[in-house]
């Protein structure tokens, strides 16, 4: 919303009268907030140059590249029908646009998807501000937005092309429209619940586990609303059915058969614990390590904000999501990304409260001479948060595990010059981006890791005995022009590579410390 020069304000059509009245006190227009967030997120997208999790490429961009250009690898999840094409289709249409504009060149194909995601991230930032403003006012909203932009994990992860990133944006926008989330003093405008339901259904269609969040919100709405029958039969069932129907039709078109993705997803991840194949953690991992690392140094402010605000609807949602996800054996940071911004709203509340405390009971006058010499508690808090989060954000985004992306970016440019004929990746499966980065339809081979009822996969056998595996593997390969591997396996395969006339052509720094395997300090590219 823009303020008029004469001090009056233009009422936004989605604001209630109470909101519109309080909005007059805000010095910021929503357009200015969005443009600020968009500029920040686009810079953020350009600064992300590291590899975090295979799904960013293999479950989104790789699938989209196959749809748009006719080549790209589909992992076993797509054969089993546990993924919907709804999320990759968004990037496929974007790729088509780039091709139409003749911009599908290596440097653009590498950067453009995250730049597209930055637009959705900026929308999420805007609605975090709007939700905070509706609940607590401008003082909290601006500090909640500060916390969102300053948090290291949001900087590191939000602009990546995970379905979790879009789910997070849809969660923030959806919560803004749900009446049950708001206080009784700031009721939602008429009809907003339908928008909230549509966004919740879309989030679940993109990522079925988003239902964990929306079951909580739906039950809260069911408890608080006075028109329960209307909510269930006129809004919930029709809107949910329309979104599910559209998603099923899209998946029918892409799979060439009827596939009910949410049901297959539920069977694999919840009923058969299929996700445990990728590793398990203790039940308390999200509370003691995962989520606490994501919140990082904002944690004490988050706890203080929860206690001071006493806004149990949102704090209950955080606890609900962390608790239900803790039941599953397989846990990842990004699974609980949608509730990280909610925790940062409470950080905003805590930071805003520091202002009130400093000016209460004439304290400002009494300590004026001291304040001129020493920074206030708020200034110290902001310095502490920035000093702890900025280095972490930049290190994780620019340095840690960047070698696999650098190697593929290099091969993409070399392939565009006709210097690459075929590539073999002698490393754990899905350790690098693939055709979506290379953008060249030439033969490539990586080590398969499709679950096989307890039997070791190609990737497992290679990691157990690199030399024996490579010797057997080479008996049946079509001699590649390039081989990519980590330095940790290169030590074992030096003689093998020399015997097959390969020489090192490039070495890329990857990491300073190990994550879940031996230290993979660099990624090495060999050519014949």
From TrEMBL:
Keywords: Endoplasmic reticulum, Glycosyltransferase, Membrane, Transferase, Transmembrane, Transmembrane helix. GO terms for biological process: GPI anchor biosynthetic process. Its main location: endoplasmic reticulum. The keyword Glycosyltransferase applies. One of its GO terms (cellular component) is endoplasmic reticulum membrane. Residues 1-23 are annotated as: Disordered. It is a multi-pass membrane protein. Residues 1-11 have a biased composition (Polar residues). The keyword Transmembrane helix applies. Coiled coil: none annotated. It is found in: Endoplasmic reticulum membrane. It comes from the Eukaryota. Its EC number is 2.4.1.-. The chain crosses the membrane at residues 152-177, 197-217, 229-250, 284-304, 311-329, 335-354, 380-398. Belongs to the glycosyltransferase 22 family. This is Mannosyltransferase. It comes from Gossypium mustelinum. The lineage of its organism: Eukaryota, Viridiplantae, Streptophyta, Embryophyta, Tracheophyta.
